[in-house]
Amino acid sequence: NGDEQQNQDYLFKIVMIGDSAVGKSNLLARFARNEFYPNSKSTIGVEFQTQKMQIDGKEIKAQIWDTAGRERFKAVTSAYYRGAVGALVVYDICRRQTFDSIGRWLNELHTHSDMNVVIILVGNKMDLKEAREVGTAEGKALAEARGLFFIETSALDSSNVAAAFQTVVKEIYHILS
Ligand code: GDP
Ligand code: MG
């Protein structure tokens, strides 16, 4: 069976959502280009970035979409979500308000995409230890209650950034194969 699947192509659309300035664009920049923007005004970046990944020896293309700042104007449209099979729902561990928004983002995601979309809850900026407002256990508990994967990341120092994307891609691949 390995042989006949060798040339199969996988293209997974994955969306990034969450409040403004939680670090969505920088997580994508870190993952796809190993770049970080210390003073980005939360509008940097491209519409989407395609990243090749290997899972079980298969080449998978993850097409990762960034809101490109539209969340500030409540202008993330249904087209953004259409066809998504994975999502990173991001909050800033130093701003509780962004954690309190997660429920709304999940509702929006479920309204506009397939119920089986693979979701990881991402607590970003874990490098800012002194300013933390949301505990790791709280993030984990919310993820468990909502049936999501969970990880804390830092786009600044790269902690767990690749793991966050890989977790989603691996799970999608295992569901589809
Ligand atoms: P977005 O609006 O969700 O796309 O957020 P951005 O990626 O534009 O990031 C907003 C601000 O937070 C920028 O000034 C980034 O430099 C900063 N930032 C993003 N990720 C991290 C992180 O992991 N750690 C720290 N310390 N700052 C971050
Ligand atoms: Mg952004």
Automatic annotation (TrEMBL):
Organism superkingdom: Eukaryota
Cellular localisation: Endomembrane system; Membrane
Membership in a protein family: Belongs to the TMEM19 family.
Protein name: Ras-related protein
Organism of origin: Musa troglodytarum
Entire-sequence positions represented here: 4 to 180 of 518
